[in-house]
Amino acid sequence: MNEQIRRILEESGTKTSKIRKLLLLGLSHREIAELLTNGNRGFVWNVYRRMRDEGLIPALNSVPTGCCVSGLDFSFTRKFGVEIEAYNCARQALADMLAEAGIVAELASRSHTSRCWKLTTDGSLDGNNTFELVSPVLEGEDGLAELEKVCWVLEALNVKVNGSCGLHVHMDASDFNITTWQNLLLSYKHAEAEIDRFMPNSRRGDENHFCGSLRRFSDENIRSRRSLDELQTLLGSRYMKVNLQAYSLHGTVEFRQHSGTINFTKIENWVRFLGRMIIFAKEASLPAGIRLENFPFLEEKQKLYYKLRAKKLAV
Fold it and tell me: Quick check: is 225 in a domain?
C-alpha cells in the first residue's frame, strides 16, 4: 500500500476527514469505500459532493459504468407536466367524462394558459376527432395519481393513438445550473441508442422531424457552452428529443421522444425514468456507449421493464 495512503488511514481523525484526504489524492470512490467504509460507496459519494460544492474538488464529467449512486435520493418529488396527443374522441365528450371523474378540463387554444387540464387541437395529428390533452403543473406522487385517473378516462372512452401522436413530458428545470443542463444533454445523447430500442421505429434516431436526435452534436460542443442560451443556440430547434427552448416559455425541459400512448404504465415509467435521469444529471453524466443494464439511476425493476419493451419492439 502506498505509504501516503497508509499514513492517512492510521491517523486518529474522523472517517470523513480521511475520505477527504484520499479523494484529494485521486483515489476512486470504490477504492476509498473498500479501505474505510466496508464497501459503502454512498458514504464516500456524500463526502465528495460536499467537497465539490465547497470548490475543493472538480465535478466529475461522467460516472463510469457500474458506479454506485446509492448516496442520491431518487424519490420522485419534481413538478412535471404531460401533453397527450390522441384521436377518436370529441373534445367536449372527453371534458365531460373527465369532470365526472373529478378532473377539471377546459377546451382552449394552444396558447391559452390554464391551471386545469386543457383540450386543444393539433394540425399535425391524423385521425378522426384528434386532440391534445395538456396537463396543468403536476407534482410528484400526487401528480402521478391524478394522471392515472386521466388515463382511466381515456381508456374508457376508447381513445386511440397512431404514428402521428406523441407523448411530451415537461420537467421543472428551475433548479438547473449550466452543469446540470450539460450533463442532461450528454446523458441523453449517450443513452439515446438504448432509449431508441424501447421506442417504436418512428421515434428512433432522426426518423421523426418533431424529435430530432442529439447524436449530431459532439460532446465537446456541448461541454464548451457556458450558458443555457448557448446550448439553446447549439440545438437550434425545439423539435429535439430534449427541447431546451421550453425553459424560456415554461421554466421546464421538454422530452419529446416517447410515442403516443394513453397507457398509464408506459407514461409512469417514462416520467420516473426522466426524473431519475435529472437527479443523476445534477451530479454527473452517463459515459458514451453505456448499455441499459448499466444505467446507474435505474432500479432493477425499471431495467427489466425497458428490457422487455425493447424485446417487444425488436424488428
Answer: yes
Rounded to the nearest 5 percent, the helix, strand and coil shares of the chain are: 45, 10, 40
The pTM assigned to this predicted structure is 0.80
Whether 310 and 197 have beta carbons less than 8 Å apart is answered as yes
pLDDT in tens, 21-68: 888 877 878 789 889 988 787 788 888 878 876 766 655 555 544 444
Q: Count structural domains, the chain.
A: 3
CB 94 within 8 A of CB 159: yes
User: CA-CA distance, 117 to 216, in Å (whole number)?
Assistant: 35
Note whether 133 and 155 are same-domain residues: yes
How do 117-120 and 105-107 pair as beta strands? Answer: parallel
What single DSSP character describes residue 207?
A: -
Run of H or E including 182: helix 178-197
Range of the structural domain that residue 224 is part of = 175-246+272-313
Q: Are residues 183 and 309 in the same domain?
A: yes
* Among 184, 177, 200, 176, residue whose Cα is nearest residue 257: 200
Q: Determine which of 36-50, 130-144, 171-185, 301-315 has the lowest per-residue pLDDT on average.
A: 36-50
